[in-house]
Design goal:
Length: about 350
């Protein structure tokens, strides 16, 4: 069975996903597209030679009987509207982060999905599919380094654009660590505090950069997460888990080592799309495969989107107050329990 996708939003990540569904992955086809930007739609149809209908808005894509699943890749504030409409129509949804612009919006999606009685939504938290994080989780789950005590992680980008604001350090950047870290250690967040080190000369005037987030989990693990979006040297994701019996590191991206003129060097990626390319492929392949095999998506759920949103809200509050802020504690509904772990096989 081919899963027929309607795409809402054909900007940067929308194009990437359209390309991988059309040219790399198996079992999916783009049959409908919409974007508020008509030029973006036309260029994507031309570039990937899509045999897809162009619709004026998200509702008409969702209502199209030819569409089995909706790919929501518009900008964040528009996500809730499209996801809610897709759930009401009983259609599968792959939604890029954030699931909704607010925790209340995510909660409405969770309620709507539970009312439908079936998991329909997967959120694009692709790091759970990255082979490095999967391997790190395997080591932690095996208790090879004992109980995790501390985590140190780093999220650095070469530079940010003029539209990037200090709160986006949370909503656009840290959000990936927020999702993947509690999944890694099977724990929940309890509090967060934010520290602002000396500002880099490479950040524009309005932006606080770098920022350090200290998150504590219910089990007492202390996480130090650095967001530094004008690090000036590349796209660099690091994660080190310090356990009772040892330390485990996220593997470095493999790169050829050259020895030349008295120096040994390896390349550092500068493009985030390349760092997680395999993970993006695997998350969408898993979305299609699990729907085909089990009738529901298998990856990060609406509940995960909601947890990310309430944690992100506390981080944003902590940015403002400078105090340690508590992260709202919520009980996972039975509906989202026993969500199978990711079904894809690492190669
Ligand atoms: P983008 O390049 O700005 O693309 C978004 C596109 O959606 C634009 O063409 C925009 O048109 C259009 N759009 C906005 N509102 C719409 C609506 N209501 N209906 C239809 N189209 C609409 O942004 P992007 O970088 O692709 O990001 C899209 C989403 O993906 C964001 O939520 C972002 O956080 C997420 N994302 C996730 C990752 C990841 O690593 N998982 C990476 C990148 C992005 P205009 O340009 O005219 O506004």
């Amino acid at each position: 069975m081919t899963l027929k996708f309607g795409v809402i939003g054909t900007g940067a990540i929308g194009r990437e996903h359209i390309n991988r569904i059309t040219n790399t992955l198996s079992g999916g086809k783009i049959v409908a597209v919409t974007d508020v930007n008509n030029e973006a739609v036309k260029s994507v149809i031309d570039e990937f030679q899509l045999d897809a209908a162009i619709f004026p808005d998200d509702h008409s894509v969702i209502k199209d009987p030819n569409v089995d699943a909706v790919l929501v890749t518009s900008w964040g504030p528009a996500h809730e509207h499209s996801v809610m409409a897709a759930i009401e129509a009983g259609k599968y949804v792959f939604c890029e982060k954030p699931l909704a612009a607010t925790a209340e919006g995510c909660q409405r999606i969770v309620q709507a999905e539970m009312k439908q009685g079936k998991r329909l939504v997967q959120v694009g938290f692709m790091r759970r599919y990255d082979s490095g994080y999967v391997e790190l989780k395997r080591v932690l789950d095996s208790h090879d380094i004992g109980e995790p005590l501390m985590i140190r992680c780093v999220h650095r980008n070469t530079s940010s654009n003029e539209n990037y604001t200090s709160d986006m350090a949370v909503s656009d950047t840290l959000i990936h660590e927020i999702d993947v870290l509690h999944w890694l250690v099977n724990d929940e967040y309890q509090s967060v505090q934010v520290f602002f080190p000396k500002k880099t000369k490479h950040a524009l005037g309005h932006l606080i950069d770098p920022q350090i987030f200290i998150l504590e989990t219910k089990a007492g693990i202390v996480i130090q997460a650095e967001v530094f979006v004008n690090c000036n040297y590349g796209y660099d994701i690091q994660c080190e888990v310090i356990g009772e019996d040892g330390v485990a590191h996220l593997p470095e991206v493999s790169s050829v080592v050259t020895r030349k003129e008295g120096k040994r060097s390896t390349e550092i990626l500068v493009d985030w799309k390349l760092r997680f390319q395999d993970a993006y492929d695997k998350e969408l392949q898993d979305f299609m495969d699990s729907i085909r095999k089990t009738g529901k998506p298998n990856g990060p759920s609406s509940w995960d989107g909601y947890i990310a949103a309430i944690t992100s809200d506390a981080c944003l509050k902590a940015q403002q107050t400078g105090e340690k802020e508590l992260i709202q504690s919520v009980e996972k509904p039975v509906f989202y329990q026993n969500t199978p772990q990711l079904s894809f096989k690492q190669t």
